[in-house]
Amino acid sequence: MRTVHFQSCMVSSGHQVQNHLRLKPHFIKSALMVCFLLFGVSGVYSQQAFSLRQCLESAVSNNHNLKKAQYDKEKAAYARQEILGSLLPQISGSASLNDNLKKARFIMPNFINDMLPPQAQDPNAKKYMTIEMGTNFNASAGVSLNQQILNFSLFNTLEIARIAEKMANLGVEASDEEVIYQTAILFYSVQSAEYAVNQLENSVELVKEMLKTMEVNYGNGLVKKVDVDRLRVNLVNLTTQKSAVKSAAEVQKNLLKLQMGFDVNSPLEIQPVNLALFEEKADENVDLPFSLTNQTPYRLLLENLNMAEVQRKSAIHENLPTLSLIFNYQYNGVSDEFFRGATNYWFPSSVIGLNLRAPVFSGFSRRARLRQISVEILKTREDAAMLEQSLGMAYKNARMKLDDARNTIALQRENQILAGEVLNIAENNFVLGLSSMSDILNASQSLVQAQLSYAGALNDYMKAYIDLYKSGGNIHNLMNE
Hints:
About 65% of the residues lie in helices and about 15% in strands. The chain is an alpha+beta fold. It has helices at about 5-25, 25-50, 50-60, 65-85, 110-115, 150-220, 225-260, 275-285, 295-315, 365-430, 435-470; strands spanning about 90-100, 105-110, 130, 135-150, 320-335, 345-355. It is built from eleven helices and six strands. It starts with 5 loop residues before the first helix and ends in a 10-residue tail after the last helix. The protein folds into two domains: about 5-15 and about 50-80 and about 155-310 and about 365-480, Up-down Bundle (Outer membrane efflux proteins (OEP)); about 90-150 and about 325-355, no CATH class. It is elongated, with a radius of gyration of 44 Å.
């Protein structure tokens, strides 16, 4: 029977360390100082670690897509003010100054010669004569006013602008909810990935310790070289797997930085997984009511339907007459000598009136436009019915996924504990010569897989937890987590 002394090697190593410490007492003081510094640094980093609430607050404040939505909201407010301004009096001024370098000439019959007495008429006079019109200089200055009195189409345009502003506000809410959702998903993805990395690091350290012991036993002729080599291969595989999971965690962290508006090159630390909190959340029965009125996409679609209804009214009102008030006042001046001398004349002119415009026939284009809008209204109503069903289905699916994830967490937690016990048994049996190195390697790999599965179950549960908040229209409650 093969006997391998794992514990004896570790005990002997412990005695060597104790003897070494007795020879160098100052080493204890140095070690304590190092531990103090390490714990101090760890405390500083823990203070800098971001919680979920801090990540969400940073994302809501700095996310670029959310800022663009805020700009759209501001733009919609200005668009409504523009339409509102068109209902107020439109006043404009004008002025002109002309130097008539070549004054206009008109050709007309030579009636002056015909008006003379017969004896005074010139028989050789030209049949037509030319007359120069105007003065060398003329100027004018005036003001005009136009006020809409009756224009239903313009009134509806103001209503359209008001609805567009409300839709922009809902767009900001939708963007805000999406930012919160994506940030929370990434936060828990990073947490679960870093938890998996830590578990893999523990497994790597465990295999390293086993490898050291195996190398000592191999030197003493207690184990075969093939067992040592197989353990080395397993260590390389575990290290490679840890690097892959760590890289995936960094990718998720970079995406989280992007959501939070952080520089990708700047460091970001988040709070580690609190298993007790996870298990507490997994054990509690989450009861979030479903309400369509809390669903921003549904409210946005209803406003889109209102927009189509108002546009339909606007198309109808295009067939109605419009009435506006006009007023013009102008002051004109003419002169041959740059507004001085005997030819300098100035005189005012003004006009006030009503302008009525009544459409008569448009080639049936307005009727076709009205029917197009009616079809769009029918399509929007179908979209609303489909969205209502889709949101209800998403809520039910989120509840089912949450229940499945809760059960999976419980199973994977037990599986992880069982895999650790199996590995301990395999190690003890190997020491006693009752099992082979393959049993240890298989048990080690099963433990690693159980650890990764448990981390994945945590991530799946939190994703289902967030999906339930979102599908229920309560995503903003995550800000208080």
